[in-house]
Write a structure and sequence with these properties.
The chain is of the alpha/beta class and 344 residues long. It is 35% helix and 23% strand.
Length: 344
């Protein structure tokens, strides 16, 4: 890509998770951070100084009108997304938008529709499938080592949801989300399960709230049936932790099973391969403990840049991502009704 003019990127938001976006953009040679927008002037100044961002705005519309941009990165809470995407699309600017894409499925569908009607690229910042352990697991499947897939089980235990101050120090709006475990966090695993196992044909959900300090559910089970015949289980609980130096590195532990053996993920980012009838050995693969989740934010943003510059393949376009959101909606429907929901 040498010799290509850098992509001019602007960002909206300077909250907790934005640090990983700014760090990643700063490490991509083909990107120039041209501007940022934030209502928090102090945070905006600090980010601009650290990453040498030349222009700061408090009004996103003004920024979009005054700065020539190739891409807008939206890093704000979901209730703000529709208006922001609409403003960018009206000016012909491609968008990466953080998840949750919108508070409701209907609003997410409206956001995708307005981008598509204008012919403007919309990518959802769904980064978990870019975690290196999931990408290596996909390679194990593609190599044929797993054989016929049987099941995937993820035990999610970040351990950050106990007590009245749960989430307040990092992402305080979590406490007020009426839908939480699946809408905010479980959606990552819906996408990752589809990445590994293929399309989902049915779900069953059983969700509950344990911590009374929050509005939404923070524990539960989601069962998946996949078109390939395999099954999946997301066992989610944000209150308890698991064995790890950093419980938010992998967010938990996974077993991926097939006729050829079992691939196990631990809380340290290590994968362990046990062929059927043989000993379990550490899977040899490379990844860097940098940024968030094995540098998955960088990997996603690098992926989008390569798409914009070369026209290469793209995952998690707005249209593609609606499938995840419809699965999410079915899990909530199942939990309310107590019945399995078929998606066909």
């Amino acid at each position: 890509m040498s010799g290509i003019a850098p992509l001019r990127v602007a960002t909206v938001g300077t909250g907790y998770f934005s640090q990983f976006h700014y760090d990643a953009w700063n490490r991509i040679d083909e990107v120039e951070l041209a501007a940022l927008c934030s209502l928090d002037q102090q945070q905006a100044n600090a980010v601009a100084e650290r990453y040498d961002v030349p222009a700061i705005f408090q009004d996103m519309s003004v920024m979009l009108d005054e700065v020539r941009l190739d891409l807008l990165d939206i890093i704000t809470p979901p209730e703000t997304h529709k208006a922001m995407v609409e403003a960018a699309v009206a000016r012909g600017i491609p968008v990466i938008c953080q998840k949750p894409l919108a508070p409701t499925l209907a609003e997410a569908e409206a956001i995708v529709a307005l981008a598509e009607a204008a012919g403007i690229l919309l990518v959802v910042h769904e980064n978990f499938r870019f975690m290196p352990w999931f990408q290596q697991a996909r390679r194990v499947i593609e190599e044929g080592r797993l054989g016929q897939p049987h099941s995937v089980h993820f035990r999610m235990r970040p351990g950050d949801g106990q007590g009245p101050r749960a989430y307040l120090d990092r992402q305080p709006y979590f406490q007020n989300m009426s839908r939480f475990l699946i809408h905010e966090t479980g959606i990552h695993f819906i996408d990752s399960f589809r990445y590994l196992m293929g399309e989902v044909t049915a779900v069953y959900g059983q969700l509950r709230r344990i911590n009374p300090a929050i509005a939404g559910e923070d524990a539960g089970y989601a069962l998946f049936t996949f078109a390939c015949g395999a099954t999946g289980l997301l066992d989610g609980n944000r209150l308890n932790d698991h064995t790890a130096d950093n419980c938010r590195l992998t967010m938990g532990e996974m077993h991926l099973e097939g006729s050829g053996g079992v691939l196990r993920l631990d809380g340290f980012g290590d994968l362990w391969w046990k062929p059927h009838g043989g000993p379990e050995l550490r899977e040899d693969y490379d990844w860097e403990a940098r940024g968030f989740g094995g540098d998955c934010v960088y990997r996603l943003q690098r992926h989008v840049v390569e798409h914009l510059l070369t026209g290469g393949p793209l995952v998690n376009s707005g249209r593609d991502y609606l499938t995840n959101l419809r699965i999410e909606e079915a899990i909530y429907d199942s939990s309310r009704s107590g019945r399995r929901i078929d998606l066909a």
